Each structure stands twice: as C-alpha cells, then as structure tokens.
Amino acid sequence: MRFFDRAEEIAMLREIRGMAKDNSQFTVVTGRRRIGKTSLVWKAYEDEPILYFFVARKAEGDLCDDYIEEIESKLGIPTMGRVERFADIFAYLMKLSAERHITVFIDEFQEFFRVNKSVFSDMQRIWDMYSQKSHINLIVCGSIYSMMTKIFKDKKEPLYNRQLRFMTVRPFTPTAMKEILAEYNPGYTAEDLLALYTFTGGVAKYVQLLMDSGATTKGKMLDRIITADSIFLGEGKAILIEEFGKDYGIYFSILSAIARGKTSRSEIEDVVGRQIGGYLTKLEKEYEVISKKQPLFEKSSTKNVRYTIGDNFFSFWFRFIYKYSYMLEIENYESVKSIINRDYETFSGTMLERWFRRVLIEQQAFTRIGGWWDRKGGNEIDIVAENELDHTATFFEVKRNAENINIRKLEAKSAVFLCATGEFKGYVISYKGLSMADM
User: Would the pLDDT of 35 be above 90?
Assistant: First the structure.
C-alpha cells in the first residue's frame, strides 16, 4: 500500500528539520504499535540521508557496532572504531553536529530500558552539555506508550521534559480511510467502509494488511482476519502483554468485560470478581487503552461513569477473538466467523457512532462533542454537538438503517437533556439523523 495521509505531521517534521539548522531539536514520536510511526518519519525525511538507529534487544556493544556502520555508511566519514557504550556515540554525534547538520532517528527508543537503563541519564547529561551549540535534529520513536510517557513525562526520569515536542501519531481520519478504500475498491459500499473502520480503527498496518491482500469488502476482510495464518489473531496479546507485564491476566479480564458491554465499574467487578479501581485508573491514565465517559455537563466526576475501549481493533479483538480463543485453538474458524456475523450488526452500530464522532471532529465545526444519558438509562442521546461561538447545538441519532431513525423521539430526549442540564439557553437547536447512507 502506498503512503496515505499524514500531511500535517510531515509538514511539522520538515519544519523541525529546518529549525534544527539553527538550533538543536529533540522530538518524541509515539503512538500505539502498527500506527505507522516509523513510516511517517521515513516519509518526512525521504529527501535526505538520515541516521537510523534501531534499538534491538541485544548487547549494547553489538548495537554500537550497527550504529557505527550506519554513521560511516551515511555520512561517509570514519568514526572511533570499536565502541561499547551508546553514550560515546551520542556524544560524538552531538559534537559533530556543531559543525554540520545531522538528523538522527532512534527507533524503539524505550528498549534502552532493557539494554542499559543508564543510557537515559547519559543522554540527558550529553544533551545538556552540547545542545546549545549543536545543529542536531534528534527524533526518538517508541511503541510502548506507557514506557515512552514514563521516560519523558515522569519528573523522576533524567530525560523529563528534555524533548521540545511530543508528537502522538493517530489512526487514519475518516477522509483518509475513504480515499484508501476507494483506491483499492472503487465500488465499495458503506458496509465495506464501516467494516474497515470496525476491524482496524484506521490503524495503518491493519489497513495495509487488508488492502494488500485484496480484502476490500466486509466478507473478504473477515475471511482474512479469521484464518490460520492471520496476524490479527495473536495481535492483542502481542501488543498488550508487553504493556501490562505480569498482571496482564487481570487487565485482559477487565477489557474483555468492557468489550462485552459491561461498562460500569460495578458491572466489571461482578465479572472480574475483585476490586479493580487501581487497574481502571492505570488502563485509563497510564496505558490509555480505555476512556472514562460521562454525560455532557455531568457535574460529579464519579457518577454516571461508563468505561469504553477507545481502540476499535482492541474492542473487536476482546469481543470476538479473545472471547472465542478456545474455538480458534481447535481451528474452528467458521464457527467464530458465524458468531461475528451473528453479532455484527449490534457491534458495528456502536462503531458507526464512533465513525460519525470522528467525522464531526475532523470537520472542526463544533467546539464540544459528546454523548448524554440520564442516570436511570431511560433517555440517551448518541451525539450532542455544540458550537459556543455561534450559539448553536445539534442533537444526533445514529442508526445503521435510516428507516430506524425517529426524530420525534430524539426531540423528546433532547427536551429531557435541556431540562436536566439547563444548558443551551438562547441557542438555535437542530436535530439530525445519521445512518450508513451518510458515510
């Protein structure tokens, strides 16, 4: 698959490179695995040679051998021979960049935790010593979000706030996903587009795997995902076990419960069978795998809370692949596909609501977007969007089938909202239904 989207990120990285010719720059690029961080940096700097250091899980001396070879090959200059410590290479490059501009890209930066933790304090010391005189464009990239956040945002860590920018790479926008699918399947249907969003959430690698294999319709996507050689089957474990460590079993139980629709703390605890407050906090604040949702304008920070898995793929993986792993272990792929097809309409309906929220965010036409429900659960509005600049608000109902949209019912629920919250006084109020026909 060719490179799509990311125009703003590329422009920013190129602007940073230009600034580095006058003053050293230190940029952190992070985001979940498979999102396309490495490809983004390569694309942004495809017009010049850059030093690429991949932090593999091997001895520091062996890594240094690889990095010395990269320096000599890309810069065409001899270095210092055999080196055992990355700190010596970094100091060499900082000094060299006082004489010539250099772009250095360190990938999987968090792996230095396993190679040699002192690398971070060494880099802090060297950066503070030479950065005022150097012209280095330093880009560090990491996939384990919690570790990258700890390295740069924990006050106890040596590299705390040394970066000048912390760039988080996000999934493809709805516009980009439509462009991609149109290129590979010009006659795609709304069902195909929703399936691509439901299964991948716009994560670049997942989209690429489906497009490159010709899986451009809902049925073909499902066939490609639920098959013996599919990387999708083990993907949740491959990514999240590394994030969660030895407690992954408890986290997986929590996420599995949320994926099955148990969204309140009490409901989740009933499933897991233990107190989970600390785990929920870590999943939300540290790992950023779940989100704590409340109705718009809820005054209490602890009441009427719902937890959701923000990543579409993880939602799908825990709902269907992890839950029915016992079927997959005996290679009963057809039964798993039958279950997914059986429950797909309900599951994808939730994803359709997420899709339209992403569309509204991309349009930048509103200043506040959220949902609303009362504490008894009798009244719920899918999307409430406010523009406080022109005093307008729109209430949206989202259904897969346009025939199931009931604007009168939406107006009645909105009246309950207006009475309960006291918001939007003097606003121009409108009501709108959104369905797959609007994708």
Answer: yes
